[in-house]
Amino acid sequence: MKTNYKTEEERHYDKKANHDPIQKISYSDYVLRKSIEFYFEQIADRISGNTGLKILDFGCGSGSKHYKFAYKPIHVTGIDISSQSVKIANQQVTEQNLNAEYLVMDCEKMNFPDNSFDLVFDFGTFSSLNVDVAISELCRVIKKDGTLICIETYGHNPFMNIKRRLNVLMGKRTKWASQHIMIRKNWTDISNKFQKSNIHYFHFLVLFLPVFLKILPERSGRRLLSFFEKIDSSLLRIRFLRFLAFKTVVVLENPIK
Is 4-255 assigned to CATH 3.40.50.150? Predict the structure, then answer.
């Protein structure tokens, strides 16, 4: 029997899949492009030249974030609690001739043998889970020399925490997910379960740009965004300012068995 938060997450993402089946790149993704580009670069670097990798798309949704990696000789297995999302993902396997399979599965209790995967993708799934349970399962199914690459929202910025509460009221995010955004302690605990870990921090001032970007000419908007991306990059190199970051991209290698 599913716990209350799992039922809530399942219903939320079934509804979201019905509303936006392919989960297209959004305007917010454009504003947050630096973290997203960096995340995909980390994946591409590890896939390049490695033809026999076994890959898990963890909390895959409709699979759209990682379709571009699901072509021969690379095979991707995706799992998600949302049956509607998985249905859409499997439709895309046929339509786009993807080398992938998508399964309805609880990310906290996976039906895979130990040491099944070389590489795991996580695109913002952890806030929907009991992350301690999920990480233990991931460490079990990732091979000893395997890698977990994550992009997750960071939960310390006070401005974004206010917005997050409003998103719950508007139905854009579940109460569980809004209260379980990754924080520093989470990443510290998780890093201790891997032999190697690297955390990269993104986005602060760019979060205040959307209202200006929507009214400026496209060329001016791109320049403004690039300018503030450079400022953010400098600010977030300063350790005591990293709590202001909106996104983290985390690369974890070699789980401790």
Answer: yes
